[in-house]
Amino acid sequence: MSDSPLAELVQRLPELRLLTEPGDLEHYGRDWTRRWTPTPLAIALPSSVDEVQAIVCWANELNVALVPSGGRTGLSGGAVAANGELVLSLERMNRVLDFNAVDRTLTVQPGITLQAVHDAARGNGLLYPVDFAARGSCSIGGNIATNAGGIRVIRYGNTREWIAALKVVTGNGELLELNRGLIKNSSGYDFRQLMIGSEGTLGVVVEATLKLTDPPPLSQVMLLALPDMDALMQVFALFRSRLSLQAFEFFTDHALHHVLAHGAQRAIDGDYPYYVVTEFDAVDEKTQEIALATFEQAVEKGWVSDGVLAQSDAQAAALWRLREGITESLAPHRPYKNDVSVKVSAVPAFLHEMQALLTHEYPQIEVVWFGHIGDGNLHINVLRPDDLDEVAFVAQCDHVTRLLATTLQSHGGSISAEHGIGLVKRAYLESTRSAAEIMLMKGVRKVFDPNGILNPGKLFMDN
Ligand code: MLT
Ligand code: ZN
After folding, report:
1. In whole angstroms, how far apart are CA 446 and each of 167, 402, 436, 441?
2. Of 71, 169, 400, 412, which is the most exposed, with the fewest CB atoms less than 10 Å away?
3. Stated pTM of the model
């Protein structure tokens, strides 16, 4: 055996691409949180399942922690390597392996971007419907690791609904073929679903078979300006009862301010506290008339102050940019992010309590809200004032998050709707999952990864 773990890895896998330059360690060792200093041992870029298995076996024998890594667009520190781990980047395993027209599935390697999956599905006349702003950079493996949601959950559900099969290398190097693309398979525990959302702590996804569906019907995009918070759910209920919604997203004036400063085009004159971008099926003149009548009714009721109906694809894209550009426009501020959810029926009461809490706890701090209000999912972005140092700022936000977790608990909500727990939210896991559940989760982890080499420190406080 060689005298260092890396030398041993090179000896075992001479063809493996390994990066050790400081710039690469920094690039691959962090995600979009930018909160931790990356200090990986090295970056491994395997090109085959065999190489992934060999790396996992090496990690077990030499007791080296691994951080599975996709596009690193995560917002919870789930793919951060800040403790001398080997980053296992799936970036080179990025091909489409198969399209099956009968099963309507697309089999891909984990490093493929969501955008490339969309393109491949569309190229075959079908749709992979999970979608969100990071589509060009995030990888399908990362989407699976966090059970990614996004802007079309209201119509299509989360990533979980769209996985027909997975191949996974477990923490002890075994290759599992999970569900093999079956629609019906009532044969015991569904490990495929267990892997989805496990944040790289149970196994490394090395292949995924994705379900595809019909392309969406023709649609229209509308931007609405709302006078107050209560109107949000009233407009949602009205629009949902009249139209077939593909998306219903909200943001505040603060979010609009940032996205406009970042280059987006203003679509409505005047200032309003809340905005909604909604997309709905509009297949013929009749549905378009219903949409306009619904809009007018919302105006009459005083729930909507102004609105724009996109007249072209370019205008629809411009309206969507107002919502989808928010994360990028906030990125330079490195916001502290909460990503919370409650049942849709609990949103009105929760929103009021949450607003009171945030106003009280962050009197001098800018807080930017937006999110998937139709799914009960809010993104709260807290921006550090220039005169507050990072450590004090994070301490204050952690304190508020604890209070928020209690509020969520009383509404039966979750501390992580779609970004995952990672490093950022592990201290609050017990506000959403019971002690018995967490104990079982840890037990499951021991079964799939007995030596705890897969993404240690993520999800749980102690492992
Ligand atoms: C979004 O909804 O745009 C994403 O979840 C990203 C974010 O919350 O910043
Ligand atoms: Zn989101």
Report:
1. 19, 28, 15, 9
2. 412
3. 0.97
